[in-house]
Amino acid sequence: MNKDLLLYEKSRAGRRTLRLGELDVPAADVKRLPKGSLREKFAVLPEVGELELVRHYVRLSKKNVSITDSFYPLGSCTMKYNPVTNEAAAGIAGFRQIHPFQDAGRVQGALAIWKRLENYLAGVTGLPAVTIHPAAGAQGELCALLVAGAHFEAKGESQRKVVLIPDSAHGTNPASAAIAGLKAVTVKSGDDGLVDLADLKSKLGDDTAVFMITNPSTLGLFETRIAEICAAVHAVGGLVYMDGANLNAIMGVARPADFGVDMMHINLHKTFSTPHGGGGPGAGPICVIEELRRFLPAPRIVEDANGYRLDYDAPDSIGMLRGWPGNWGVVLRAYCYIRRLGREGIRRAAENAVLNANYLRVKLNKTYHVPFDRMCMHEFVCNTRHQRQYGIHAVDIAKRLIDLGYHPMTIYFPLVVSEAMMIEPTETECKETLDAFIEDMLLIAQECADDPDKLHAAPVTTPVGRLDEGRAVKDPVLCYTCG
Description:
Blueprint: E1 6-10, E2 16-20, E3 23-25, H1 27-31, H2 50-62, H3 84-90, H4 93-96, H5 108-125, E4 129-131, H6 137-154, E5 162-166, H7 172-179, E6 183-187, H8 197-203, E7 208-214, H9 226-235, E8 239-244, H10 256-259, E9 263-266, H11 268-271, E10 286-288, E11 300-304, E12 307-311, H12 328-364, E13 380-382, H13 394-403, E14 410-411, E15 421-423, H14 431-450, H15 452-457, H16 469-474
Parallel strand pairs: 5-6, 5-7, 7-8, 8-9
Antiparallel strand pairs: 1-2, 2-3, 4-10, 9-10, 11-12, 13-15, 14-15
Helix pairs in contact: 3-12, 5-12, 6-7, 12-14
């Protein structure tokens, strides 16, 4: 490899230039660089040929797991394949290179897409007021709860500090309530896996601010009494918030506003096409009823006779939760996804997600125990009740799946099911992939009986074997060279 990548030289005219490849940079520009940012000596680079370099990166890539080479039945996370065309759109220079602080007159196209997406989300949910502002689903929850707090404060009902949350909810729900300065109170699930209506009603009162409900739930079940639940909360003056993490099961089929929902967030990065995982990128816009519009974060995107602009004139707004109105790259991908599928395509995606989940449930329910074995939505939960006699736990099955080429499903959640294994195939997987997964899950069940130690040792095909889960959390080794 050429060591002469970066050096100083004097030209014949005596002018000092910086050579980077074939580019000569004038000395005046060099002086603008911060002191200490230029090398005094050559960089120490490995002397390897192109073939060795290519093999190095290919070997590294093989250690990475992604949706392009592995089925992700990761329940409650919707790890679906995202169309490459949406990625291409997000990479268009005119979109990729805009800056958050550019004058509105120079980014009219971006602002138009932003506003149109708000309108699309309003159409999907039935809730007319939308903000793309929140950075992720959890921040969407917090944003909605702050909006609710501002609403009650404006009404002179500051005593409303209780947020009721089902025991099957995502863990971010009670966390968001605590950050918003509210008190989280748990509502029990009934024997059918749905909200215990009697328990909910016993906890409703004039201190109730919000009932947070995930529908469909983390058990993959649709809350059939949702209209009655909303009516009960409204009767005591409270608001109903829907965790929209599982919207992909009902989008285009049912609108949350029609149930009586007042607020919800949408995970654009799960429902409407963005690579999801590893903590980001994300976007968690919230949709609310008209009465709550004035409390949404500012600035808002508005359209007038001169086009689109950012409107900061919002005296009742809760303010900003982050440094910019939204995550532009995620917004753009979601816009492309919705435009490409259209109304019927959105509905068909939801129907396919439900079909795939029920196909897996029916094929596996005789081998793995399914506590709520009835028509599910986008995911279902099973457990290891039939495998415990062999000393097998959910973690053993998950680790064995890694050896068979799969990313494991979500395990030990929701907490209301012991040894839970939450499986979500998503709408993008074909029947051949689902059949292969079924075959391997049945194979693992047979191995539980024939050779349980094989599962206890798994995974054996990975660079790192079975970890001490507790120690890995408390004392992580974050690089190969340490520890």
